[in-house]
Each structure stands twice: as structure tokens, then as C-alpha cells.
Write a structure and sequence with these properties.
alpha/beta, Growth Hormone, Chain: A, Glycerol-3-phosphate (1)-acyltransferase, 2 domains, 7 strands
Amino acid sequence: MLKKFLPLYLTNIMSVMNDNLLKTLVCFIAAGWVEDSQKTFVVNSTAGALVLPYLFFSPLAGRLPLFFKKTKIIRIAKICELPIMLVAVLGFKTQNLWLAIGAVMLMGFQSAIFSPSKYGLIKDIGGEKGISQGMGGMEAFAFLGILIGTFLGSVLSEKASESVQYTVLGVVALLGILFSFFINADETKQTEETSANPIKFIISVSRMVSEHRGLKHVIFLLCMYWWLSASIQTLLILHCSSALSMSPTDTGIILAFMAVGISIGCIWCGNLDRKKFMLGYVPQLGFLVSLILIAVCVFDMRGMIFTVAIILVSVLCGFFKIPLDAEIQKRAKPGELNLFLAYFNLVSFIFIFFSSITNVLITSFLSTKYVFLFDGVVMFVASIFFLFNYKNVLCFFGRNHVRLHYEVSKKGVENMDTKEGENLLILPMHRAVLDPIMLFSELYDKKLQPLVDSVYWKIPVIGHILNMFDAVQVPNLQKSRKGVEQVQLLDGIIDEQLHKGSNILFYPSGHITLDGKETIGNRRLAYNASKILPENTKVVAVRIIGFWGSKWSKYKVKKTPSIVKLLLMSGLYIFSGIIFFVKKRKINLEFVDITNDFKQWSVLTKNDFNKNLEDFYNQGKESEDLVLSWL
């Protein structure tokens, strides 16, 4: 696989290297042409010049694959790099600040034009199976290019002659052109057409992105990553010089460590993403990055501690980025991919552009260390936002949270698998208020729709989460019992959802057990469902053992425990670290296919039907011995 991708990787590394080499040379050399008070402006203007073309030309770049092969677009763009280097050399020779920054802007234009094409080739070269590895390698080589370009730029600006600087710029451009002619791909032709007008392009493609549920949130968080990466890269040039009194070469070393860390994270995560659900770890990685950045500011880190913190942030960022990149590739249809990548380029560079503005505003009034604080807080909020807007990730996060408290074992989970055209009716027993969270977190990769009492939609956060899960709203029978009319409405909802092919979940008992035994009593929800069960529906009953006696249950209490209060206490329990010194409570989940029994029981009376279901649930022995844990 590496052999297939290598020409694309090498073309990309040369492009990124020259972008960052030129940008770093301008930052360090051109900054010497102005007064100290204007150096911040030069650094941020140079960084902004590289990304500004993406804001205007990404829509055009997204349309080009309609008319030309992606490999051809890349080769033409690379050839244009040579005259751009001549403009840069002229700017340096004449010490013309605007000409030097103009060359950086032209490099930004050149990169913007072929960026969607180079990422669009990943699936063409490696297929579906090669997406994660291709993205991991692509980003690793990109950050290796950032590493070499930034480090070379800082060293050359301080120690090399002008002729050496100009020669290196030219050689890197020529190598990029050479490698581009070795790229070979079975290209998928783009079919979707959009406007080249940036505003119309954003509106039209954002509608296309919204059709893929949750994808806009993936793109948003990936844009936040680029905000952070760009912010720290430009910040380090200023912070290392003004706050840490480092030379350009020392600063270049720190920037090189940052690029190496991201490259390591990208390669490592690219390999893991093929085996594990790495997207599920993204919010947690975001939280870690945020805490480290906030700590850099609060503790005013310096020297080796500061360097280690930057390396750690960089590695985490590599892990953070790749699952998001891969998700775009996986979710987009072949004809949409280039447009989505162009859209992402445009939006991400809007974020990068504004990161330069916020850096200027903060450093105009405060020390550079407060940019770390600001970026940390923003990243933390963005990770929270993503967590509560991407269903599978929220479920996976819940799974990791629950497993810190409990030792969970599953039996018969293969019974949750379905054939083509088959749907599920899941009927769990109800031991505690944590049951639904545990079930959905353990089955994060399944598309399940719970039937939920309408009262829960009135709770803002809970209502949002229920909508995210496509939960089906049912009447509140406890507060508004209308006999036959209400039951018929409920039956109609179940009938509709089952015949739509939904995988629906509801609790036959409708309440948490009061004595450790499942009691369905006179309820008729499951019984009525058995009467209208479609032929292609599999019925899976879930036996849950281990919750009785926990704080989540009604053990020795009459009032239903507050789930919000318990979740907050659970988080505090984890944050305090006590959780790691307490024995875990054992929870057993057993998934049993009862389809045949369910159909046979349907001819019985309601009471006999419920009695059989109760007997099934109560086969598991529930212990009342409390584990030494508040949970």
C-alpha cells in the first residue's frame, strides 16, 4: 500500500515544505526589516497571507475535477511553483516586505488550487480499505514537511547566505514537480457541480454535508484543530522569542518537535483506526489537549517542561485529527468527495485566518502565554459540542465512562446482528436508571431508536440527546392515563415504527424494579407488539444482572434516583481519582433471541404472556451484596 501512495506523499511533503520554508524565512528575515513594535504584525500577516487564498479559491478548486483529472491539476499547480519562487527571491533581494508576503500569498493560491485534488486521490489510490492508512500517511508526511520546512527556514534565516536560501527554495520546488509525475490513480470522476462564488459555494455544499448526519460536526471540530495548530505555530515564533528569549534556531527546534509529534500521532492513529473506533476517543483527546494548554499558561511553563508539553500536545493532536479526516472520506460519496474537501478547505482556513486575528488581539493587550489559555478553553468547548452532537461518539464516551465504574461482560451480543431487510425489537429488563445509558453505550455501533416518555423532551439537554438518537416520543401514561385511547395511540406508534424497519427499544415493565425482580404486571405494551409483529422483525430480550443494590437502583428507596445528580457525582468520582482504588461492580448483559417464543406467547392471554416474559427475565440471580463503591 505504501508503494502506491508514496509518489503522492512525496509530492505533498515537498509542497508543504516549501510553503513553510518560505513562510518561516519571511517571518524571520522580513521581521528584521521593521521596528520591534511591528514584528507581531509581520508574523501574523505572513501566516494570514498563506491561508487567505483558500478563502476565495477553494470553491474553484472544488470545481476543477469536473473538467480535469486530479493528477493533471496537481502537476500544473506544482509547475507554477517555480515562478512563485522567483517572486520570493526578488522580494528578499530588494527587501520589499509586500513582495515577500505576496510570494507567500501566491504559494497559498497554488496550494489551495490542488489541495482538494490531492486528498481526493486517497480513495482513488487505496480504495475504501486504504482510507485511514492513506490519511494517516498523508498527514504524517505533511507534518514532516512542516517540520523540515520550518526548521530549515529558521536555521537558514540565521546561518545561511542568501544564495543558499534561494537554492533550497528552487530545489524543493523542482523535486515536487518531479514526484507529481509519478502519481498513478484510478480516478473517480466528480459528478456534483457547484458555484465558484465562495458564499454560494458554502451554502450549497453545506446543504449537501447536512444530508450526512453529524458530518458537519466532524468538519467543525476538524476546523477547530486547524485553528489550534495554526495558532500555536505562529504563537511559538513570538512566545519563544519574547517570553523565553530563544534564538530563531532554538525556536525552529521547538517547531520541529511539534511537527514530529503530530507526524507520530498521525501514523500511529492511522494504523489503529483500521482496528479500533478511534473517532470515539476524539473528545477525550480534545479535553487532554485543552488541559495541557491551560496548564502552560497557569504554571508559566519554561525550558524542558514547556518543550515536553508542546510535544505531548502535538502527539495528541495527531491522534485527534486522523479519525476526523477519515470520517469525511468514509461518509462522502465518490462524486461528492472533492466538493466536501474543497468546502472543508475553505471553512478551515476561515478558522485559521481568525486564529491569526485573535492572536493579534490577545498579544496586543496581554502576554503571549494567554493565547495558550484562550486556545485551551476554546478547544475544550469545541470538544464538548462535538461530543453532544455525534451519536456514536457520545455512546462510545458513555461506554468508557461506565466501564470505569463497572466490570461489564456481554453474552449473546451476536444476536443483535441482522440480515438484509431485517429489523430489531429490543426488550430489556429495567434494573436501574443507568440501564439505557449502559445499553446504548455498549451498542454504540447499532442504530437503535428508543421509545421514551414525552416528559423527558422537556429537559433541555436530555431532549437534545433524545432527538440525536431519533427517539420516538410516547404518551406519558403515568400522569395521563386515558385507558383504551392512550393504549391505542401507543400501539399505533409501535406498529408504525416496526413496519418502517426501525430497530426500536422499549421496556415491557415500564418502570424500575422495586424488589430486584422484573414485574410487568398488567401492562400490555409488549403483548400488543406481539400481535402486530412484522415477519422480518427479530425480537431480542436483554437480561441485565448486577445493578440491583447500586445507587442507580431503587434498593431500599421509594423515589427514583436523579440521573442528572448521579451523573455529576459519577464525574466527580472519576475526576477525584478515587475510582481507581475501588473494586468495580460486575454487570452482566445477556442478549437472547426470543423471536419464536415471542410469537408463540402471542396467542396466550395478556397475563400469561407477561408471566412468561417475567420468568425469562428473572432467571438471572441478582445479588444484594453491595460492592464497596458508592455506585
